[in-house]
Amino acid sequence: MDLFSSVRELHGVGPARAAQLEKLGIRTLYDLLAFFPRDYEDRTNPVTIAQLQPGVPACFRAMVVSQPVLRRIGGGRDITKLIVADETGKLTLSYFNQPYVKNQLHYGESYYFYGALQPEHGMQMANPAFEESGRPGTVTNRLLPVYPLTAGLSNRTLCACIRQAFSAAGALPELLPETVREQYGLCGVTEAYTAVHAPESWEALQSARKRLVFEEF
Question: Cα–Cα distance between 195 and 206 in angstroms, integer?
Fold first, then answer.
């Protein structure tokens, strides 16, 4: 594959997914890489459970201290409930219509979570994102890009497609001479595109934006 290969070449992108991407003007791997986020969610700087504020999304690290329990709640729906804790307190998590969670969150294991307390329900949270503690964050403990979307296409799915495109597309062409980059303090093209889609910090993101704006002009 190369930059101009069809998105249909990516794993998990069939005719329906390709049609959703095409509604966003995305047909090739390069189109994916050049489809920049419209905003970012700051999911860095984890807080403790005691520091969580009602209605304010935040990232936190906690251990599962009860076995997840799955039950039916009528209308063809189900709910998975469990309790997590850190050194400052406990929190009840509820996942609606996500039965797989029961087998992904394990008693005694620690995870990063991202979500907001429900103002009307005290120390409870519905459907927080989660990942194993100790692994590089894809939806927690990071600056998360937020993309323009279309019906049926989630932000998480688009992020996964873009990660695949980076792996499959090969090297991006460097359009700016090294002398120009040095003169204006600009990062390289691969560094810029990587930082726009997966910034390690606000500073890295600003550096990438500076390069891309310069290139556009």
Answer: 9
Structure token pair of residue 9: 């070449």
- The answer to whether residue 135 scores a pLDDT higher than 80 is no
pLDDT band at 74 (very low <50, low <70, confident <90, very high): confident
**Number of other residues whose CB lies within 10 A of the CB of residue 91:** 24
Could you tell me the pTM of the whole model? 0.80
Structure tokens at 77: 């729906």
Contacts of 1 (CB under 8 A, 6+ apart): 9, 29, 168, 169, 170
3-state helix, strand, coil in the chain (%, to 5): 35, 25, 40
User: Among 38, 39, 56, which residue's Cα sits nearest to residue 47?
Assistant: 56
How many angstroms separate the CA atoms of 14 and 35, rounded?
19
Give the integer Cα–Cα distance in Å for 112 and 46. Answer: 8
Supply 73's token pair: 């709640």
For 175, phi then psi, to 5°, come to -90, -20
Strand partners of residue 125: 93, 117
- Which residue in this structure is represented by tokens 């996942």? 95
Give Cβ neighbours of residue 79 (< 8 Å, ≥ 6 apart): 70, 71, 73, 94, 95, 96, 97
78, two tokens: 């189900």
Q: Which phi and psi (to 5°) does residue 137 adopt? A: -75, 135
pLDDT score recorded for residue 63: 97
Relative orientation angle of helices 202-216 and 189-197, to the nearest 10 degrees:
120
Residue 112, helix vs strand vs coil = strand
